[in-house]
Amino acid sequence: MSPVQLYDTTLRDGTQREGISLSVVDKLHIAQKLDELGIHFIEGGWPGSNPKDVEFFEKAKQLKLANSVLVAFGSTRRPQSKADKDANLIALAGAGVKVATIVGKSSERQVSQVLETTLDENLSMIADSIGYLKGRGLTVFFDAEHFFDGFKANAGYAQRVLEIAASTGADCLVLCDTNGGTLPSEITAAVRAAREVADVPLGIHAHNDSELAVANTLAAVGAGVSQVQGTINGYGERCGNANLCSIIPALKLKMGVDCVSDEQLAKLTEVAHYVSEVANLIPDSFLPYVGFSAFGHKAGLHVSGLAKWVNSYQHIDPSQIGNKARVLVSELSGKKNILYKAKELGLDLPPQGKEAQRLLEQVKLLESQGFQYDNAEASFELLLHRAKPDYKPPFELVDFMVVVEKRRRPPARKSLEEMLSEAVVKVRVGGEVMHTAAEGNGPVNALDQALRRALLQFYPSLAQVKLVDYKVRILEESVGTGSSVRVLIESSDGVNEWRTVGSSTNIIEASWLALVDSLEYWLLKQKNNR
Amino acid sequence: MSPVQLYDTTLRDGTQREGISLSVVDKLHIAQKLDELGIHFIEGGWPGSNPKDVEFFEKAKQLKLANSVLVAFGSTRRPQSKADKDANLIALAGAGVKVATIVGKSSERQVSQVLETTLDENLSMIADSIGYLKGRGLTVFFDAEHFFDGFKANAGYAQRVLEIAASTGADCLVLCDTNGGTLPSEITAAVRAAREVADVPLGIHAHNDSELAVANTLAAVGAGVSQVQGTINGYGERCGNANLCSIIPALKLKMGVDCVSDEQLAKLTEVAHYVSEVANLIPDSFLPYVGFSAFGHKAGLHVSGLAKWVNSYQHIDPSQIGNKARVLVSELSGKKNILYKAKELGLDLPPQGKEAQRLLEQVKLLESQGFQYDNAEASFELLLHRAKPDYKPPFELVDFMVVVEKRRRPPARKSLEEMLSEAVVKVRVGGEVMHTAAEGNGPVNALDQALRRALLQFYPSLAQVKLVDYKVRILEESVGTGSSVRVLIESSDGVNEWRTVGSSTNIIEASWLALVDSLEYWLLKQKNNR
Q1: Are A215 and B184 inside 8 Å of each other by CB?
Q2: Chain A residue at shortest CA distance from B424
Q3: Distance (Å) from the C-alpha of residue A308 to the closest C-alpha of chain B?
Q4: In terms of domains, do B135 and B237 share one?
Q5: How many domains does chain B have?
Q6: Distance (Å, rounded) from C-alpha B486 to C-alpha B419?
Q7: Same-domain check for residues B337 and B263
Q8: Residue A522 within any structural domain of the chain
Q9: Residue A378 belongs to domain spanning
Q10: Taking CB atoms and an 8 Å limit, are A246 and B210 in contact across chains?
Q11: Mean confidence (pLDDT) of chain A
C-alpha cells in the first residue's frame, strides 16, 4: 500500500482531554520527542484562540526538528466578514509555520443550527479562508468537521464542501469523525465517495467515542487516505482521539504501510511514556502495544505456553515497539509463575521443593491484606530474598513518630507556610542504632528525609535514589477514611526504575512500608552488583 | 440483521486482568447484575482449575436469574488420556450447569509446539471431550483457541478442527483471536471461511491487543456470527477482552441488531460502574459510552455548540445507555463554560458582569497550584459560592494537629496494632469554638473523626455522609516525596455522590482541604433544600 503521513495533534486536540494541561515548555519537549519518533506533521496549537499557543510557535522557532514539520491550527473566517480582517486567520499566517490546518463545517445541520449561517456562506467562508492562506504561501490542510455525520444526512452538501476546498487549493482534505460515532464500514463508503469528487490527497481524523477510532483510521487507509491524524496514547476530548501508538505499529507491522523506520518504531513505548509523564498523567497500563501490561502474562497456562514458544500468547515481538514481556505473580498464578519469576531474577529455587508453594501461600495471604505484587515486582523480589534463612536486611526499623500541625494565626487564611511536618526515626544498621529527626513538606517526605539522614551515613550512594511516582488506592470503599489503603511507589536511580507496595489502614504506615522496600531493594541490588 | 446472543466472561477471562481479584461473593453479585442487563450467557469460571470456582457454581444454584444462563468453562481432555477419566471434564459435568464451554487448539503450531502432541490426537481430544459432555446432556460451546492465527498459517487444519467439533455435536463454534493481533478485514474473511465448513452457529471471542477488539467483534457479526463473547469494561489479560459495554450499544443503536431491550440498555452505565466497584478498580473515565468523561465537553467552542443543539458534539443521546453529558471547567474553558456551569447549578451570574471573568482567573491560579476542577465539581461549586460577598460557611477551621506513631516492642514484628494515629481539631461553628480529639485508623481518618465529633453536635444528619473513594496524585514527578500532591475525594450520602479536591505538598493538608469541601458542600446542599 502507498505510504502514509502521520499527523500528530496531541498538542492541540489532545489537550482537550479531561484532566490534562500542558505548559509551553511541556509542549516544546513533546514536539522534540515526536520528531524522534518520525512524525511527519506536529500540530502545535491554535494561535488565534490562545496566547499560550502564540508563545509556543514563537519559541518553537528554536526547535531543531529532523523529521517533523510544525503546523498551526485555526478555523475558517467568521460568517459575514473578510478573511484578511479575521484575527484568527491573521494569527495563523503570522505563526511562522509553513503549514496551516483550518477546520470548516461539512454538515448541513451544523452550518444552519450551530454556525447559524447559510449553506452558501459556509462555502464562501471555506473558499476565502483557504484562498487567504494559500495567498500567503502556506500549505493548507482542510479539516472537514463532522464530515461523516454530514455525509450520512446530506451527502451532496458534504461532497460540495470538499469540492470547494479542493478547487481553492487545499493540499489535503481531512475527513473528520468529530463525534466518533461512525462504524468502519461507513468510513470506507464515505472515503470512497470523497475520492470521487476531489482529486487531492485525503486524510482521516477519528475520535474514539465508539471504541472504533483505530479501526476507523485503518479502514480509511484501506480506502485510500494518505494522511492519518491522531494523538499519543489516544489523548483527546471525551473518549479521546485515534491513538497513534496503536495505529503506527498496525500500519507498519500488519498492513505493510510505510510510515516510520524500524528504529523509530522501536521508540514507540518510550515516546508514549514520555508524553504521559510530561502531561503528568499516569500511563495507562492496559494500552495496546505500549502499556505496561500489554505483554504481561498472568494465567498459569499462558506462562507455561510462553516457556515453550515465546510468542505463543502475544501478537508481536514486543521489542519491535520497545516494550517487553512480563510474567505476573498473583493468587491466580500457579507455582510455575513463581519458579519462572525466581529464575528471571536469578534466584535459585528448587523446582520440586516446598519453597515455591510456601511463597505462593504467602503471596495469597499478603494479597488478602491488601498487598498486590503484579505491579510491584521489587517488593515481590524482596519477598523471595526475605524467605531465605540467611537473609540479612541492610537496615531495620526500630520505631518512628510523625507530627503534622496546622496553626492558624491572625489574620486567618490558608497558607502552606503554616503547616509543620516532622518525623523522628530510629533504625538499626549493622550493630548501630541511629536516631534522627527531620522536617518535610509533608509527613511521608519528613519520614523519607529522616530515614535517609540515618542511612546516608552508611550508604552515601543512596542519594541518587528518587521517588518518581506515588499512588494511593483505597481498598474497601464502604468504610470511608477508615479503609485500608495500598500505596504503590515507583523509584528511580536515573538508570533503572522499580516499583514497591505497602498496605495498611494507615496511609503513613503503608507509605513507610513501600518506602522501606524501595530503599532496601536498591541497596540489595548494589550489594549484589559489587 | 439476525439477533445476537451475548456471552459474558468477566468472571473467568476478565479476572486475568492485571490487578483484579474477585471473591466468590463478588462473582455472585456480578452475575446477578449481568442478569439485569439481559446478558444471555454468564461464564462463571473454570471448576476444573480452581476450588474457588467450584464453590461459585455450588452457591450460584441459589441465584434467581431471569435472563441469563450460567456456563462453566474448561478445556479439552489431556493428550493420551480418556475423557471420562479427565478431572477437568468431570468437574465441568458436575458443576450443575446446563451449558459448558470447552477450549481446544485450532492452530497447528500451537498443537505441536505448546500442547506437544500430534495434529490427529488434538482432533481426537476435541471430539472425545465434546462427545463426553454432550453424552451428559449438556449444551456445548467450543472455543477454537488461536483460530485466526491458525487459519492464517494453515487454513486447512483450522477448518478441520471446526468440522470435527461440529460433527461431534458442538452447539456453537466460537472463533478466538486469542492473541488479539488480527485485523477486521482478516476477521471477515476467516469467519466466511468458517461458515463454509460448518453449519452450526458461530461465535467470536476477541482480545484488544491491537485496540481492535470491538471492531473485530462487529466485523464478525457483519460476517454472520450469532454469539458475541466479551467482558464488562473490557477487563481481561494483557490489554483486555472485547468490551461488551461498547459492543452492546453499537449492535443495538448503530447496527439494528437485537440483543437487549431499551430498558436493559439504559442500565449499561450502572452495570459498568457496579462491576468496577465490586472488582475494586477505579472506573476508567475515558471508556466509550459508560465513562464519566464520555460525554464531557471541555472546548469552549463545543460547549457553545451544544447550547444550540444538544447532540452537536456527541454521537448518541447518553441517556439511552444511562450516562449523561457534562460541561467541564478548566483553564481551556471560555467564560461561557463558567456561565453554563453556574446556570446548571442554579446560581445567578450576570452574563455581562466581571464575576465570570474573575472566577476564570481564580480557576487558572488554583490550577497552577495543583487544584483541578474538571473532576471535582463540588469544589468548583463551592468556589462559586465563596465568591459571593454574603457567603457564610457552615464551619471554619481554627487549627489542627495530627500525630502518627509506630513503636516496636519486643519481639520486634510488624503489626497494625502498634500504630497510633491521633488528631486534635479546633473549629468554629456560628459563634462557638469546638475543640475535639479523636484516634483513627490513619491520620486522615483521625482528622475526619475529630472534625465530625465537632460538627455532629450541630449537624447530626452529617452522619450519613461517607467517603467512597480517595485518590492521591503526585504532581511533580522529579522531586520525590517532597512533591505536591492532589487529593480527590468522592463522597456519598447514599443517594447522591460528589467529588472534591485538595492540593498541597503535604498529603494531610491536601486531604484535609478535600475533606472540608466534601462536608461543607453537603451541608450547603441540605441548607438550600430546606
Answers
A1: yes
A2: A405
A3: 6
A4: yes
A5: 4
A6: 25
A7: no
A8: yes
A9: 369-387+464-530
A10: yes
A11: 89
Q: Is residue A243 part of a domain?
A: yes
Partner residue facing B374 (CB), from A19, A316, A470:
A19
CATH number at residue A144: 3.20.20.70
Does A139 lie in the same domain as A82?
yes
- 3-class secondary structure, B362: helix
B21, B116, B277 member nearest A477 (Cβ): B277
Residues of A in Cβ contact (< 8 Å) with B505: 416, 441-442, 445
| Model confidence pLDDT, tens digit, residues B74-91 | 999 999 999 999 999 999
Rounded to an integer, what is the distance from CA B217 to the centroid of its chain?
20
Q: Which parts of B309-354 fold into alpha helices (H)?
A: 335-344
Helix %, strand %, coil % of chain B (to 5): 45, 20, 35
Q: Return the CATH number at A429.
A: 3.30.160
DSSP, res A152: H
- Nearest alpha carbon to residue A3 among A318, A215, A207, A248: A248
Sign (positive/negative) of CA torsion B300, B306, B309, B311? positive
CB contact under 8 A, A294 and B406: no
- Provide the CATH number for the domain around residue A477: 3.30.160.340
B325 domain residue, yes or no? yes
Taking CB atoms and an 8 Å cutoff, what residues of chain A touch B305?
110, 114
Mean pLDDT value of segment B366-380: 79
- A290 and A245 in contact (C-beta within 8 Å)? yes
Helix (H) or strand (E) holding A113: none
A293 vs B contacts (CB less than 8 Å): 17-18, 238-239
| pLDDT tens, residue order, chain A (530 aa) | 789 999 999 999 999 998 787 888 889 999 999 999 999 999 999 998 878 899 999 999 999 999 999 999 999 999 999 999 999 999 999 999 999 999 999 999 999 999 999 999 999 999 999 999 999 999 999 999 999 999 999 999 999 999 999 999 999 999 999 999 999 999 999 999 999 999 999 999 999 999 999 999 999 999 999 999 999 999 999 999 999 999 999 999 999 999 999 999 999 999 998 898 778 677 888 999 999 899 988 776 777 787 788 888 899 999 999 998 887 766 556 677 777 777 777 777 776 777 777 887 787 778 767 787 766 889 988 988 888 778 889 999 888 999 998 876 544 444 444 688 899 999 999 889 999 999 988 888 899 999 999 999 899 999 989 877 777 766 654 445 556 788 888 888 877 888 899 988 888 889 999 999 999 999 998 887 65
| Beta-carbon separation of A209 and B238 below 8 A | no
- Measured between CB atoms, which of A212, A219, A515 is closest to B214? A212
Q: Answer whether residue B290 is part of any domain.
A: no
**A192/A311 same-domain check:** no
A469, A21, A465, A467: which is closest to A283 by C-alpha?
A469
Are B272 and B376 in a shared domain? no
Cα–Cα distance, A106 to B52 (Å, whole number): 56
Q: Are residues B140 and B235 in the same domain?
A: yes
A418 lies in the same domain as A491:
no
Residue B96 to chain A, least CA–CA distance (Å): 23
Probe site for chain A from B239, B287, B363, B409 (most A CB atoms < 10 A) = B239
Mutation target among B27, B207, B404 for the A interface, most CBs of A within 10 A = B404
Residues A401 and A491 in one domain: no
* Domain-terminating residue out of B414, B434, B458: B458
Which ranges of A64-171 would DSSP assign to H, the alpha helix?
87-93, 108-109, 119-135, 147-153, 155-167
Residue among A114, A289, A444 whose CB faces B481 most closely = A444
Cell of B116: 506437544
> Counting beta carbons within 10 angstroms of the beta carbon of residue B475, is it exposed (0 to 12), middle (13 to 18) or buried (19 or more)?
middle
Nearest CA in chain B to A254: B183
Tell which of A219, A251, A278 closes a domain.
A278
Contact A211 B440 (CB under 8 A): no
CB-CB: which of A246, A316, A397 is closest to B211? A246
